[in-house]
Known about the structure:
Number of helices: 7
CATH topology of the largest domain: Jelly Rolls
Radius of gyration: 23 Å
Number of domains: 2
CATH class of the largest domain: Mainly Beta
Number of strands: 33
Distance between the termini: 37 Å
CATH superfamily of the largest domain: Exo-inulinase, domain 1
Strand content: 25-35%
Largest sheet: 10 strands, antiparallel
Mean pLDDT: 75
Low-confidence stretches: 1-42, 117-126, 176-184, 214-221, 242-246, 457-468
Amino acid sequence: MKNASVLMLMELLAATLMGLSIESVGWAQEAGKESKAQPSASAVVPDLYDDFSDGRYEKRTGKDPWGRPLPEWKVVDGSFEVKDGCLQGVRNPCSRIRMRSAVAYGTWEWKYRYPAGTIHLHGVPMHSTGCMFIQVDDAKPDAAKGYWWGGKNDTHLWFQRRDGGGGHAKQLLHDHPNNWGVSNPTDDRWHTVTITRDAKGAFTLYQDGELVTDGAGGFFKDVVDDTFKTSQYLWVQSVGSGPGGDANLPQVDDFKVWEGKVLPPTAFAERMKRTAGKINVLIDQKHTCGYWTLLHYYKSLLEMIEQRGAVLKVVNQAKLSPELLENFDVYVVFPLAGGYSPEEAAALVQFVQRGGRALVFGGTGEVAKDNAVNSWLKEFGLSFRPVGGSDLWTEIVAHPLTEGVKSVHGLGCTYLDVKDPAKALISSKNGAAVAVFEGKGRIVCIADEWPLMLARQGGRNKPATDMPEEGIASTKYDHKKLAENIAAWLAAPVNK
C-alpha cells in the first residue's frame, strides 16, 4: 500500500479512510489500493527498507526496489501477519516484532494506520502502536533500553527514552490532545513518522511532514539526548483490546532507515501546491479542537465535498499566510481551539475578499475569544457568541443552503450575531444557527458541529446516548440534507 509520491515511511494503522482522497502534510492517498513505492533517480537510497511486498516478515523471498533481500523479523510476543501488503498484529492484546538494526544516528521513517473501529473515545476499546527504533540491548521490549515513539487511538502521541528493566522512561515529548499539537491521528488513514538524530544526539520528530509540537505548543526540535549511542534492534508493537480485537489492530508499513544521514521529509510547500483541475480545500487542524478526530467524525461531510470534485489537504502546524492560502479555494475549520495571529486573521480576510470560501463551525466557548474566528469573521458581519444547551432550529429562510431543510437539532450551540452584509438562514428561539456571507467570496457558519458529525459510538455498533438523533445520519431531522447543500455550495466552480 504505497504511493509513488510518498518519500516517507513508517506508519502504523491500516486501509483507506473509506475512499476519501485527502492529502495531508506528509502524506497523500488515492481512493483504492496504492501502488508500491518506487525510488526516483534523485532519491537517497535507504540503508534499510521493508515494504512487505513479498507477503511475509520472515523467511523472506522478496527484494527491495534496489535489488537487496528484504530484512528478517522475529516475533517476540503475540503474532503478526502481512495483510494488504503491510504488517499487522493479530493477537489481542499485544504483539511485538523486531529486526536487527545497528543504526543509532541518522533518519528513520515509517507509515502507520488505525483501521476503522479503533477510535478510543466514549467507551470504544483502546488500541496503540509504537516503535523502539533504537534498542541498545538484547532484552525483551518491556525491559529494553532505547528510544521509543508511540501513539494511542485516543490521539495521544509520545516520544521517550526508556532506561530498561521496566522502570524509568524519560518523556522527550508527550503530546496530549488537549494541547492541540500534531497528535496521533485516529482517522483510518495512513500517516508518516520521520525521526532524525544528528551526530550530537539531537532528535527532530515529524509527523506527516510537519514538525511535531510539544504540549505547550513549542516545536519539538533539536531535543538532545545522547544517553544511548549504539543499537542492536528496531522493534514494533501493536496493541488491541476489547471488542473488535484483532480486526482493528494498527498496521505499519514502509520502513526506511538511513544511517548517519539527517534527511528531513519532503518540503511542506511542495505538498501544499495547488492540484490542477480540482477544488482545493484546506482543512485546518491547527485551529481545530484536538478532541475531534476530524477525518473520522466528519468523514461523511468531507466525502460529500470530495465527491463534488474537491481535493482535501490537512494542515497541522503551518501558519496561515496569503502564500499558503493562495493554493486553496475553500478553507474549513471545525470546533475551534487556539487563536489566530493578527497576520493569520488578515490572511483569511484577504482570502475571502479575493473569492475564497470558508466553512466555520462553532460548538466550543473558544470561538468567542478575541483572537478566535471572530477576529476575521467580523469583517464580514459574522461573529459567534457562546450559548450552551440543546436546541431545535426551525426558522428557515429560503436559500440554496436550506433547500429541503425543515428542522435541525443542535446540542451545544454557539449562536451567531449577524450584521449586514451577512444573512441568517436558519435560526432558533435563541438566535441564528446557520448564517452566510456572500460577496466575491463566501462564508457559511454553523453554530454547532453535532448535526453534521457521524454518530459517536458508546460501544461497538451502539450509538452514544448523548448524540442527537445520530448526527448526520438522523432520520428525524434534516442534517444530511443540510450537509449535502453545504458541500455543493462550497465545491461549486470557483472564479477568482
